[in-house]
Protein backbone atom coordinates (compact mmCIF):
# COMPACT_ATOMS: atom_id res chain seq x y z
CA UNK A 1 0.00 0.00 0.00
CA UNK A 2 1.46 3.36 -0.97
CA UNK A 3 2.00 6.02 1.68
CA UNK A 4 -0.27 8.94 0.82
CA UNK A 5 1.44 11.40 3.19
CA UNK A 6 4.05 13.72 1.63
CA UNK A 7 6.64 15.21 4.02
CA UNK A 8 7.61 18.78 3.16
CA UNK A 9 9.82 19.60 6.13
CA UNK A 10 10.61 17.60 9.28
CA UNK A 11 7.52 17.50 11.39
CA UNK A 12 5.07 18.70 8.70
CA UNK A 13 3.16 16.56 6.29
CA UNK A 14 0.71 17.10 3.47
CA UNK A 15 -2.02 14.53 3.08
CA UNK A 16 -2.11 13.62 -0.61
CA UNK A 17 -5.81 12.86 -0.26
CA UNK A 18 -6.36 16.63 0.09
CA UNK A 19 -4.55 17.39 -3.18
CA UNK A 20 -6.43 17.42 -6.49
CA UNK A 21 -6.13 13.95 -7.93
CA UNK A 22 -4.29 15.16 -11.05
CA UNK A 23 -1.71 16.95 -8.89
CA UNK A 24 -1.18 13.97 -6.59
CA UNK A 25 -0.25 11.90 -9.64
CA UNK A 26 2.96 13.86 -10.14
CA UNK A 27 4.31 11.19 -7.80
CA UNK A 28 3.55 7.53 -7.92
CA UNK A 29 4.82 4.02 -8.40
CA UNK A 30 5.59 4.42 -12.11
CA UNK A 31 7.98 7.37 -11.84
CA UNK A 32 11.18 7.79 -9.89
CA UNK A 33 11.42 10.90 -7.75
CA UNK A 34 9.23 12.10 -4.92
CA UNK A 35 9.32 14.20 -1.79
CA UNK A 36 10.87 17.59 -1.02
CA UNK A 37 14.41 16.55 -2.01
CA UNK A 38 13.42 15.60 -5.53
CA UNK A 39 11.17 18.61 -6.13
CA UNK A 40 13.76 21.00 -4.67
CA UNK A 41 16.30 19.67 -7.19
CA UNK A 42 13.66 19.98 -9.90
CA UNK A 43 13.05 23.67 -9.09
CA UNK A 44 16.80 24.38 -8.98
CA UNK A 45 17.26 22.70 -12.38
CA UNK A 46 14.36 24.74 -13.76
CA UNK A 47 15.83 28.02 -12.45
CA UNK A 48 19.24 27.15 -13.93
CA UNK A 49 17.60 26.34 -17.27
CA UNK A 50 15.65 29.62 -17.18
CA UNK A 51 18.79 31.67 -16.43
CA UNK A 52 21.01 29.80 -18.91
CA UNK A 53 20.43 32.15 -21.91
CA UNK A 54 21.60 35.11 -19.78
CA UNK A 55 25.08 33.60 -19.45
CA UNK A 56 25.48 31.62 -22.68
CA UNK A 57 26.14 32.89 -26.19
CA UNK A 58 23.56 32.65 -28.97
CA UNK A 59 25.25 29.61 -30.52
CA UNK A 60 25.07 27.61 -27.28
CA UNK A 61 21.45 28.63 -26.67
CA UNK A 62 20.49 27.61 -30.22
CA UNK A 63 22.23 24.26 -29.76
CA UNK A 64 20.45 23.63 -26.47
CA UNK A 65 17.14 24.42 -28.16
CA UNK A 66 18.09 21.85 -30.80
CA UNK A 67 18.66 19.23 -28.09
CA UNK A 68 15.28 19.97 -26.54
CA UNK A 69 13.58 19.47 -29.92
CA UNK A 70 14.46 15.77 -29.77
CA UNK A 71 13.38 15.15 -26.19
CA UNK A 72 9.72 14.85 -27.16
CA UNK A 73 10.44 11.89 -29.43
CA UNK A 74 12.61 10.33 -26.70
CA UNK A 75 9.88 10.69 -24.08
CA UNK A 76 7.33 9.23 -26.51
CA UNK A 77 9.59 6.27 -27.21
CA UNK A 78 10.02 5.87 -23.46
CA UNK A 79 6.24 5.48 -23.10
CA UNK A 80 5.98 3.01 -26.00
CA UNK A 81 9.06 0.94 -25.20
CA UNK A 82 9.75 1.46 -21.51
CA UNK A 83 6.19 1.43 -20.20
CA UNK A 84 4.13 -0.46 -22.81
CA UNK A 85 6.91 -2.92 -23.66
CA UNK A 86 6.76 -2.44 -27.45
CA UNK A 87 10.16 -1.60 -28.98
CA UNK A 88 9.49 0.72 -31.91
CA UNK A 89 12.16 1.52 -34.50
CA UNK A 90 9.72 3.66 -36.45
CA UNK A 91 9.32 6.84 -34.43
CA UNK A 92 11.17 8.69 -37.18
CA UNK A 93 8.32 7.88 -39.58
CA UNK A 94 5.96 10.08 -37.53
CA UNK A 95 8.77 12.61 -37.06
CA UNK A 96 9.29 12.93 -40.81
CA UNK A 97 5.62 12.84 -41.77
CA UNK A 98 4.74 15.66 -39.38
CA UNK A 99 7.80 17.66 -40.41
CA UNK A 100 6.87 17.45 -44.09
CA UNK A 101 3.24 18.26 -43.27
CA UNK A 102 4.32 21.42 -41.46
CA UNK A 103 6.44 22.40 -44.46
CA UNK A 104 3.65 21.82 -46.98
CA UNK A 105 1.10 23.76 -44.92
CA UNK A 106 3.28 26.77 -44.16
CA UNK A 107 4.78 27.07 -47.65
CA UNK A 108 1.28 27.08 -49.13
CA UNK A 109 -0.53 29.23 -46.59
CA UNK A 110 2.25 31.31 -45.03
CA UNK A 111 2.69 32.32 -41.43
CA UNK A 112 0.29 35.23 -41.02
CA UNK A 113 -2.21 35.32 -38.12
CA UNK A 114 -0.35 32.57 -36.25
CA UNK A 115 -0.99 29.98 -38.95
CA UNK A 116 2.30 28.27 -38.09
CA UNK A 117 0.84 27.31 -34.69
CA UNK A 118 -2.25 25.86 -36.38
CA UNK A 119 0.06 24.04 -38.81
CA UNK A 120 1.95 22.61 -35.84
CA UNK A 121 -1.26 21.20 -34.37
CA UNK A 122 -2.46 19.80 -37.71
CA UNK A 123 0.92 18.21 -38.47
CA UNK A 124 1.16 16.62 -35.02
CA UNK A 125 -2.41 15.33 -35.40
CA UNK A 126 -1.43 13.79 -38.75
CA UNK A 127 1.54 12.02 -37.14
CA UNK A 128 -0.69 10.76 -34.33
CA UNK A 129 -3.33 9.56 -36.81
CA UNK A 130 -0.71 7.66 -38.80
CA UNK A 131 0.59 6.09 -35.57
CA UNK A 132 -2.97 5.14 -34.63
CA UNK A 133 -3.41 3.44 -38.00
CA UNK A 134 -0.11 1.53 -37.77
CA UNK A 135 -0.77 0.67 -34.13
CA UNK A 136 -4.25 -0.63 -34.92
CA UNK A 137 -2.97 -3.11 -37.51
CA UNK A 138 -0.01 -4.15 -35.35
CA UNK A 139 -1.68 -4.69 -32.02
CA UNK A 140 -5.05 -5.93 -33.25
CA UNK A 141 -3.08 -8.17 -35.59
CA UNK A 142 -1.37 -9.61 -32.49
CA UNK A 143 2.11 -8.62 -33.64
CA UNK A 144 4.43 -8.80 -30.66
CA UNK A 145 8.05 -8.74 -29.56
CA UNK A 146 10.80 -8.23 -32.09
CA UNK A 147 8.30 -8.18 -34.95
CA UNK A 148 7.03 -4.77 -33.77
CA UNK A 149 10.55 -3.44 -34.29
CA UNK A 150 10.73 -5.02 -37.75
CA UNK A 151 7.37 -3.62 -38.85
CA UNK A 152 8.01 -0.11 -37.58
CA UNK A 153 11.54 -0.02 -39.04
CA UNK A 154 10.11 -1.13 -42.38
CA UNK A 155 7.54 1.67 -42.30
CA UNK A 156 10.11 4.40 -41.73
CA UNK A 157 12.52 3.00 -44.37
CA UNK A 158 9.71 2.78 -46.92
CA UNK A 159 8.80 6.40 -46.22
CA UNK A 160 12.44 7.44 -46.58
CA UNK A 161 12.76 5.61 -49.91
CA UNK A 162 9.52 7.14 -51.18
CA UNK A 163 10.43 10.71 -50.23
CA UNK A 164 13.94 10.31 -51.69
CA UNK A 165 12.54 9.69 -55.19
CA UNK A 166 10.28 12.77 -55.24
CA UNK A 167 12.83 14.97 -57.01
CA UNK A 168 10.86 15.78 -60.15
CA UNK A 169 8.70 18.89 -60.60
CA UNK A 170 5.60 16.70 -60.61
CA UNK A 171 6.19 15.97 -56.91
CA UNK A 172 4.70 19.13 -55.47
CA UNK A 173 1.75 19.86 -53.23
CA UNK A 174 0.55 23.31 -54.19
CA UNK A 175 3.60 25.56 -54.00
CA UNK A 176 5.62 23.10 -51.91
CA UNK A 177 8.19 21.06 -53.87
CA UNK A 178 9.19 17.86 -52.09
CA UNK A 179 12.65 17.92 -53.77
CA UNK A 180 13.53 14.29 -53.30
CA UNK A 181 16.77 13.50 -51.49
CA UNK A 182 17.63 17.20 -51.16
CA UNK A 183 14.59 17.72 -49.00
CA UNK A 184 12.19 20.57 -48.52
CA UNK A 185 13.31 24.02 -47.39
CA UNK A 186 12.08 27.57 -47.16
CA UNK A 187 9.28 27.05 -44.65
CA UNK A 188 8.84 29.84 -42.08
CA UNK A 189 9.76 29.45 -38.40
CA UNK A 190 7.08 29.30 -35.76
CA UNK A 191 5.48 32.69 -35.19
CA UNK A 192 3.46 34.02 -32.29
CA UNK A 193 0.94 36.77 -33.16
CA UNK A 194 1.60 39.93 -31.11
CA UNK A 195 0.21 43.43 -30.90
CA UNK A 196 3.16 45.22 -32.52
CA UNK A 197 3.96 42.45 -34.99
CA UNK A 198 4.44 38.68 -34.87
CA UNK A 199 7.29 37.19 -32.84
CA UNK A 200 9.45 35.00 -35.09
CA UNK A 201 10.89 32.01 -33.23
CA UNK A 202 14.23 31.56 -34.98
CA UNK A 203 16.83 29.33 -33.33
CA UNK A 204 17.67 31.54 -30.39
CA UNK A 205 16.54 32.71 -26.99
CA UNK A 206 12.82 33.07 -27.79
CA UNK A 207 12.58 29.57 -29.23
CA UNK A 208 14.61 28.25 -26.29
CA UNK A 209 12.05 29.51 -23.77
CA UNK A 210 9.11 28.19 -25.80
CA UNK A 211 10.76 24.77 -26.01
CA UNK A 212 11.61 24.83 -22.31
CA UNK A 213 7.94 25.45 -21.53
CA UNK A 214 6.87 22.65 -23.87
CA UNK A 215 9.36 20.19 -22.35
CA UNK A 216 8.13 21.09 -18.87
CA UNK A 217 4.48 20.70 -19.91
CA UNK A 218 5.04 17.31 -21.60
CA UNK A 219 7.25 15.98 -18.79
CA UNK A 220 4.82 16.84 -16.00
CA UNK A 221 1.85 15.72 -18.10
CA UNK A 222 3.48 12.35 -18.73
CA UNK A 223 4.25 11.92 -15.03
CA UNK A 224 0.56 12.44 -14.24
CA UNK A 225 -0.55 10.11 -17.01
CA UNK A 226 1.88 7.32 -16.14
CA UNK A 227 0.93 7.41 -12.46
CA UNK A 228 -2.76 7.24 -13.41
CA UNK A 229 -4.55 3.89 -13.98
CA UNK A 230 -3.56 4.10 -17.67
CA UNK A 231 0.15 3.96 -16.75
CA UNK A 232 -0.41 1.17 -14.25
CA UNK A 233 -2.06 -0.96 -16.95
CA UNK A 234 0.78 -0.24 -19.39
CA UNK A 235 3.32 -1.49 -16.86
CA UNK A 236 1.18 -4.55 -16.15
CA UNK A 237 1.15 -5.29 -19.90
CA UNK A 238 4.92 -4.85 -20.09
CA UNK A 239 5.49 -7.22 -17.18
CA UNK A 240 2.98 -9.91 -18.10
CA UNK A 241 0.56 -9.27 -20.98
CA UNK A 242 -1.27 -12.57 -20.53
CA UNK A 243 -2.00 -11.82 -16.88
CA UNK A 244 -3.18 -8.29 -17.73
CA UNK A 245 -5.52 -9.73 -20.34
CA UNK A 246 -6.86 -12.29 -17.85
CA UNK A 247 -7.66 -9.43 -15.48
CA UNK A 248 -10.02 -8.05 -18.11
CA UNK A 249 -7.93 -5.39 -19.84
CA UNK A 250 -7.95 -5.23 -23.62
CA UNK A 251 -4.19 -4.87 -23.97
CA UNK A 252 -4.49 -4.11 -27.69
CA UNK A 253 -6.29 -0.83 -26.98
CA UNK A 254 -3.82 0.26 -24.31
CA UNK A 255 -0.80 -0.53 -26.49
CA UNK A 256 -2.39 1.21 -29.47
CA UNK A 257 -3.09 4.33 -27.40
CA UNK A 258 0.47 4.35 -26.02
CA UNK A 259 1.81 3.96 -29.56
CA UNK A 260 -0.38 6.85 -30.75
CA UNK A 261 0.88 9.05 -27.92
CA UNK A 262 4.45 8.16 -28.87
CA UNK A 263 3.65 8.98 -32.51
CA UNK A 264 2.20 12.38 -31.54
CA UNK A 265 5.30 13.26 -29.50
CA UNK A 266 7.58 12.13 -32.34
CA UNK A 267 5.49 14.28 -34.68
CA UNK A 268 5.92 17.25 -32.34
CA UNK A 269 9.69 16.75 -32.53
CA UNK A 270 9.45 16.62 -36.33
CA UNK A 271 7.53 19.89 -36.57
CA UNK A 272 9.83 21.67 -34.12
CA UNK A 273 12.90 20.37 -35.94
CA UNK A 274 11.54 21.60 -39.28
CA UNK A 275 10.65 25.00 -37.82
CA UNK A 276 14.03 25.22 -36.06
CA UNK A 277 16.16 24.55 -39.13
CA UNK A 278 13.56 25.53 -41.79
CA UNK A 279 14.28 22.36 -43.75
CA UNK A 280 13.67 18.62 -43.64
CA UNK A 281 15.11 15.77 -45.71
CA UNK A 282 14.26 12.08 -46.18
CA UNK A 283 17.38 11.14 -44.20
CA UNK A 284 15.50 12.17 -41.06
CA UNK A 285 13.58 8.91 -41.55
CA UNK A 286 16.65 6.79 -42.40
CA UNK A 287 18.24 3.90 -40.57
CA UNK A 288 20.70 5.95 -38.52
CA UNK A 289 18.04 8.47 -37.52
CA UNK A 290 15.77 5.60 -36.47
CA UNK A 291 18.47 3.95 -34.37
CA UNK A 292 19.70 6.99 -32.41
CA UNK A 293 16.52 7.47 -30.30
CA UNK A 294 16.91 3.85 -29.17
CA UNK A 295 20.39 4.73 -27.87
CA UNK A 296 19.17 7.86 -26.07
CA UNK A 297 16.36 6.05 -24.29
CA UNK A 298 18.35 2.90 -23.49
CA UNK A 299 21.27 4.85 -22.03
CA UNK A 300 19.01 7.09 -19.97
CA UNK A 301 16.66 4.40 -18.72
CA UNK A 302 13.55 3.42 -20.63
CA UNK A 303 11.39 2.56 -17.62
CA UNK A 304 11.36 6.05 -16.12
CA UNK A 305 10.41 9.26 -17.87
CA UNK A 306 12.84 11.42 -15.84
CA UNK A 307 15.79 9.17 -16.67
CA UNK A 308 14.73 9.17 -20.33
CA UNK A 309 14.66 12.98 -20.44
CA UNK A 310 17.99 13.50 -18.68
CA UNK A 311 19.71 10.68 -20.58
CA UNK A 312 18.53 11.98 -23.94
CA UNK A 313 19.90 15.46 -23.29
CA UNK A 314 23.25 14.07 -22.12
CA UNK A 315 23.65 11.68 -25.05
CA UNK A 316 22.60 14.33 -27.57
CA UNK A 317 25.17 16.79 -26.19
CA UNK A 318 27.86 14.09 -26.23
CA UNK A 319 27.01 13.00 -29.76
CA UNK A 320 27.15 16.55 -31.08
CA UNK A 321 30.51 17.18 -29.39
CA UNK A 322 31.85 14.01 -30.97
CA UNK A 323 30.59 14.98 -34.42
CA UNK A 324 32.36 18.35 -34.11
CA UNK A 325 35.70 17.15 -32.76
CA UNK A 326 35.86 13.59 -34.11
CA UNK A 327 33.02 12.83 -36.49
CA UNK A 328 34.63 9.57 -37.63
CA UNK A 329 34.29 8.19 -34.12
CA UNK A 330 30.84 9.51 -33.15
CA UNK A 331 28.75 6.55 -34.28
CA UNK A 332 31.33 4.08 -33.00
CA UNK A 333 31.18 5.66 -29.56
CA UNK A 334 27.36 5.63 -29.65
CA UNK A 335 27.42 1.93 -30.53
CA UNK A 336 29.90 1.18 -27.74
CA UNK A 337 27.79 3.16 -25.29
CA UNK A 338 24.69 1.17 -26.22
CA UNK A 339 26.60 -2.11 -25.91
CA UNK A 340 27.97 -1.12 -22.49
CA UNK A 341 24.49 -0.14 -21.31
CA UNK A 342 22.89 -3.37 -22.48
CA UNK A 343 25.60 -5.58 -20.94
CA UNK A 344 26.40 -3.71 -17.72
CA UNK A 345 23.44 -1.48 -16.80
CA UNK A 346 20.42 -2.80 -18.73
CA UNK A 347 18.11 -0.45 -16.83
CA UNK A 348 20.02 2.59 -18.10
CA UNK A 349 22.98 4.60 -16.80
CA UNK A 350 20.96 7.59 -15.57
CA UNK A 351 18.32 5.43 -13.89
CA UNK A 352 21.00 3.40 -12.11
CA UNK A 353 22.62 6.64 -10.94
CA UNK A 354 19.26 7.86 -9.61
CA UNK A 355 18.79 4.61 -7.71
CA UNK A 356 22.33 4.91 -6.30
CA UNK A 357 21.62 8.45 -5.06
CA UNK A 358 18.42 7.19 -3.49
CA UNK A 359 20.31 4.47 -1.64
CA UNK A 360 23.00 6.91 -0.48
CA UNK A 361 20.41 9.33 0.91
CA UNK A 362 18.57 6.53 2.64
CA UNK A 363 15.49 6.94 0.42
CA UNK A 364 14.98 10.65 1.23
CA UNK A 365 13.93 12.67 -1.81
CA UNK A 366 13.67 9.56 -3.96
TrEMBL record:
InterPro entries named in the record: ABC_transp_permease, LivM-like
Membrane-related topology note: Multi-pass membrane protein
Predominant location: membrane
Keywords attached to this entry: Cell membrane, Membrane, Transmembrane, Transmembrane helix
Transmembrane segments: 37-55, 67-90, 110-139, 146-164, 199-222, 253-273, 279-299, 306-325, 331-351
Pfam families documented for this protein: BPD_transp_2
Source organism superkingdom: Bacteria
Location of the protein in the cell: Cell inner membrane
Xref: PANTHER family: HIGH-AFFINITY BRANCHED-CHAIN AMINO ACID TRANSPORT SYSTEM PERMEASE (PTHR30482), SLR1201 PROTEIN (PTHR30482:SF4)
Protein name: ABC transporter permease
Amino acid sequence: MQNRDVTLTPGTKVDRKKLPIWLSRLEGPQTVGSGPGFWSLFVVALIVAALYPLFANDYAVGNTAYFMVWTFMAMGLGVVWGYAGALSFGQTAFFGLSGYAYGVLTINFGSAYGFTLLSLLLAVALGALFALLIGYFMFFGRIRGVFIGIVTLSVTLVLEAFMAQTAGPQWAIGSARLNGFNGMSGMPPLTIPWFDGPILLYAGTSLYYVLLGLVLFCYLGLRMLLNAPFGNVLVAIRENPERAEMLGYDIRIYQMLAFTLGGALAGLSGVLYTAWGQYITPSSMGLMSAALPIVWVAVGGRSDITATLIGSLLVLATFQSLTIYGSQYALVVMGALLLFTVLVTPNGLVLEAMHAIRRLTGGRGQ
